[in-house]
Specification:
With 398 residues, the protein is of the alpha/beta class. The chain has 2 domains: 4-246, Metallo-beta-lactamase, Chain A (4-Layer Sandwich); 253-397, Rossmann fold (3-Layer(aba) Sandwich). Helix content is 35%, strand content 24%. The protein has helices spanning 57-65, 83-86, 89-95, 105-115, 185-200, 204-213, 234-246, 266-280, 295-304, 321-332, 352-363, 379-397; strands spanning 4-7, 10-12, 15-17, 22-23, 27-28, 34-36, 39-42, 46-49, 75-77, 100-103, 121-123, 129-131, 136-141, 151-155, 160-162, 221-222, 253-260, 285-289, 305-311, 314-315, 318-319, 339-346, 366-374. The strands form 6 sheets. The chain has a 7-stranded mixed beta sheet with strand order 1-2-7-8-9-10-11. Strand 12 and strand 13 form a beta hairpin. Helix 5 packs across helix 9 (295-304) and helix 10 packs parallel to helix 11. The relative contact order is 0.10.
Length: 398
């Protein structure tokens, strides 16, 4: 894609990453890709806001040189130091040695830690402003969205918010970079949710704090570091992030996420009966096979649905390993305020249910039912599973 003028004198000079398999080395993006959005402001002074990943340095510099003599660059605004944003910085410094790097105090330390850069740096304070000529940039400290040095940049006269990882999402930008030119907005909203749950959700309290810092300010455009630029309805992505962030402290939407693992289909048969019980109550349910689905995708539903059904067998005296791994990530991401139930097959002594209950207690989940059974489920076990599914569904509707 070529550079795009998104506001008078403001250019998107980002690049798309369609080759990385795992974002942060953890989260699958092989199918979706991701954009690294960077923004150039051309005024009496020039400023770059956010950069790109090192592996795409050549592509990024080609974009930038299409709208700027790089050697003339005045400022580089570093909202966030994570290398998918700052990876081109060493090469950029070689081409623009006089450009001043702007960032919060922790950014200054990280510039040395990551790249050995100690000169041409200006340390900012919260709320500090910089005039570029016709346009003024205001720098707002938003720690732990999602690193301790993060800030957001607000373009005062044009009402543009550059929130870096805040309000971002997965998905390469295939021609359309705006919310109003995107043919499948629902897809990008879903990928924004997955990005939120994978990257930001553990810091939901900080997200809400950051949103509060911009309350009452006119925001005409939200231009994040990843995903769509929101210009038709910039409030939409802020509202979504705000809603998702509240789920760390209160119950989410009515719905159930069913996670299952099975070795010989015994647990799966009981799961099917439990799903019948949930269906009878009219509660939506999303089912994931933990052996096949990456936890990245499970987290979206675990976060936004208030019920969890865990169906997994005992394996070597404990919970089926893939299920344990999924629940451990849910715990790490602070998936809380859930109502849950368990079922699973055992060959003799069991142990899976005990592990599940220990994990549920650790996360503060309310367990309303659970049982295991020997070998394959008999008619009584299936009836019990069906009743437990109904019990779980009723519990989350109250």
């Amino acid at each position: 894609m070529n550079p795009v003028e998104i506001r008078p004198g403001v250019f998107w000079v980002g690049v798309n990453d369609r080759v990385t398999d795992l974002f942060e080395g953890l989260w699958p993006i092989s199918r979706e890709g991701i954009s690294y959005n960077s923004y150039l402001i051309r005024d009496e002074k020039t400023a770059l806001i956010d950069l790109s990943k090192e592996v795409l340095t050549d592509d990024y510099l080609a974009q930038l040189s299409g709208v700027l003599d790089i050697a003339s660059l005045d400022y580089v605004v570093i909202n966030h130091m994570e290398p998918d944003h700052s990876g081109v910085l060493v090469r950029l410094r070689e081409l623009a040695p006089n450009a001043i790097l702007l960032g919060m105090p922790k950014t200054v330390r990280m510039l040395n830690d990551f790249y050995g850069i100690t000169d041409n740096i200006e340390q900012l304070s919260n709320g500090q402003e910089l005039s570029l000529g016709k346009n003024t940039l205001r720098f707002v400290y938003t720690p732990f969205v999602h690193w301790p040095e993060t800030m957001m940049t607000y373009m005062v006269e044009q009402g543009v918010l550059f929130p870096c990882d805040g309000f971002g999402g997965y998905g390469a930008l295939d021609g359309a970079i705006f919310d109003d030119t995107c043919a499948d907005l629902a897809y990008f909203e879903a990928e924004a949710l997955r990005y939120f749950t994978n990257i930001v959700a553990a810091y939901s309290k900080s997200v809400l704090s950051a949103i509060g810092k911009f309350a009452g300010l006119p925001i005409e455009m939200v231009a994040p570091a990843h995903g769509l630029i929101w210009r038709k309805d910039p409030g939409r992505i802020i509202e979504l992030y705000e809603t998702w962030s509240t789920y760390y402290r209160e119950p989410a939407e009515v719905g159930i996420t069913a996670l299952f693992g099975t070795m010989y289909r015994n647990t799966e048969r009981a799961l099917s009966a439990a799903l019948d019980g949930i269906e009878a109550e009219g509660v939506p349910v999303k089912v994931y096979d933990v052996r096949k689905s990456h936890v990245s995708y499970m987290l979206s539903d675990l976060w936004t649905r208030r019920g969890v059904l865990v169906a997994a067998p005992t394996y070597e005296g404990g919970l089926f390993p893939d299920m344990m791994n999924a629940l451990a990530m849910a715990d790490r991401k602070h998936v809380a305020h859930k109502t849950a139930a368990f079922l699973g097959s055992k060959a003799w002594g069991g142990g899976a249910q005990n592990d599940f209950e220990a994990m549920a207690q650790r996360m503060g989940w309310d367990v309303v039912g659970g049982f295991d059974f020997l070998g394959g489920p008999d008619a009584g076990d299936l009836d019990r599973a069906r009743a437990m599914g109904q019990q779980l569904a009723r519990a989350i509707k109250t």
